[in-house]
């Protein structure tokens, strides 16, 4: 196995992890905002 292949694989994995963390972060913010809006309506 070439080092270049390993580097490419790690780069793809890194981008995937960043994407997953970004998605989780965005969902958490959306949930917090929804909670604040729901509390104001009561």
Automatic annotation (TrEMBL):
The chain crosses the membrane at residues 12-34. Keywords: Membrane, Transmembrane, Transmembrane helix. The keyword Membrane applies. This is Oxaloacetate decarboxylase, gamma chain.
């Amino acid at each position: 196995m070439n080092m270049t292949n390993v580097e490419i694989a790690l780069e793809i994995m890194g981008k995937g992890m960043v994407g997953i963390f970004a998605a989780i972060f965005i969902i958490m913010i959306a949930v917090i905002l929804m909670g604040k809006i729901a509390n104001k309506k009561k």
